[in-house]
Design goal:
The chain is mainly α. The protein has one domain: Ferritin, core subunit, four-helix bundle (Ferritin, Up-down Bundle). The protein is 76% helix and 4% strand. The protein has six helices and two strands. A two-stranded antiparallel sheet has the order 1-2.
C-alpha cells in the first residue's frame, strides 16, 4: 500500500489531536490538583504538536509532501487507538499513571517514526521523518524533566 507523505503526517496530526482530547477527558474524573495540572499540560502540549505538524506540512515543499511512499502494512492507520490498546491506566489516574501513559504514547510515536525512517528509500522523505523523530525524542526528554519537576511540587 502506498501513501503520500502528507497523508502520513495528517495521521500523526490526528494522533496528537486524539491524545490531546484523551488527556482532557481524563481530567473530568480526577480530584488531585497535581494530576489535573499535569493532564492539562499534556493536553496543551499535544495540541501544540498537532498545530506544529500542520504548519510543518504546509511549509514543506509540495514535491516532498506529494511524494508517494510504500507504507509499511503493519503500521497502524490509527496510531492513537493502536497505542491505547496497550495501555493500562487506573481510574482515577495518579501522577505515575499519567507519566507512564505520556511516555508510552511518546514511545509509540518514536517507534512509528523509526520504522518509517528505516523503510523509506527516498532520502529527502526519510529526512522529514528523521526530523520529526528528533523532535519527538526531544519532547520525550523535556516531558520527563517537566513531569519530574511537577511531581516534586
Amino acid at each position: 500500500m502506498f501513501k503520500k507523505v502528507s497523508d502520513i503526517i495528517e495521521l500523526i496530526e490526528q494522533y496528537h489531536g486524539g491524545l490531546s482530547s484523551y488527556f482532557l477527558a481524563l481530567e473530568a474524573g480526577v480530584k488531585d490538583e497535581r494530576v489535573n495540572l499535569l493532564l492539562e499540560y499534556l493536553s496543551k502540549g499535544e495540541s501544540f504538536m498537532a498545530e506544529y505538524l500542520e504548519k510543518y506540512r504546509k511549509a514543506t515543499p509540495n514535491r516532498i509532501m506529494n511524494a508517494w511512499v510504500k507504507f509499511v502494512p503493519w503500521l497502524p492507520t490509527d496510531i492513537f487507538c493502536e497505542c491505547r490498546q496497550n495501555l493500562n491506566m487506573h481510574t482515577p489516574p495518579d501522577t505515575y499513571d499519567v507519566l507512564d501513559a505520556a511516555l508510552h504514547f511518546d514511545q509509540c510515536l518514536i517507534n512509528f517514526y523509526t520504522t518509517l525512517v528505516q523503510e523509506i528509500d527516498n532520502e529527502r522523505v526519510s529526512e522529514v521523518f528523521s526530523n520529526l523523530l528528533r523532535v519527538t525524542k526531544k519532547h520525550e526528554m523535556n516531558l520527563s524533566r517537566d513531569i519530574a519537576w511537577l511531581h516534586d511540587l
